[in-house]
Amino acid sequence: MTTQSGPVLISDPLPEATAEILRGAGLEVIVGADQVDSSLPEISGWILRSGTQITRELLEKAPNLKCICRAGAGVDNIDCDAAAEMGVQVMNTPAANSNAAAEHAVGLLFAVARNVGQGHLGMSQGGWDRKQLVGVELEGKTLGDTSKIEKEMHNSKAHDIRRSDDDSHGLLTAPMAYNPDLDTTDKKTKKRKKVESSEKKAKKAKDT
Fold this sequence. Notes:
Layout: E1 8-10, H1 16-24, E2 29-31, H2 36-39, E3 45-48, H3 56-60, E4 67-70, H4 80-85, E5 89-92, H5 98-113, H6 116-124, H7 148-155, E6 162-163, E7 166-170, H8 187-196, H9 198-207
Parallel strand pairs: 1-2, 1-3, 3-4, 4-5
Antiparallel strand pairs: 6-7
């Protein structure tokens, strides 16, 4: 976008730095979910998270819209097909929260292995069956997963914990094998693939 572009709408809560960066680039910024209806006719950019639903009807009310940016991975709340038909580019930030998700996954691994959930439930009900809550140790176990989060778990500093008796091994060692072409497609993955081709579709729509 250039300084001649229309305003950019931020319809979901984001750090104040987001608006500051855009204003620093010479863009007018409109903030707030309550500003959606009134700002649609003039905006050229739209930034959102998961709280806003961008439908075909809303897109039809935004004739000057050129770009939608989803602050996050999922785009299920955006009608990507309608956006492509109208020449609107749809972008997302799939890696923005990968480290946080990896850390959360590591925490859940420990919780499941050590029956933390069951222990909490039992204690909240006045019980403590210690023998049933011993669980298993993760050392020496092999983690099987094919997702991007699994890869991030091995790359992230979230698992960079060393055993005191052997500093050569991390808590989670490098993956035994990784196949980036393995088909793990689900409905959400298919939806994300639409984003990847959105720019091409948008350009084609503009050229016709």
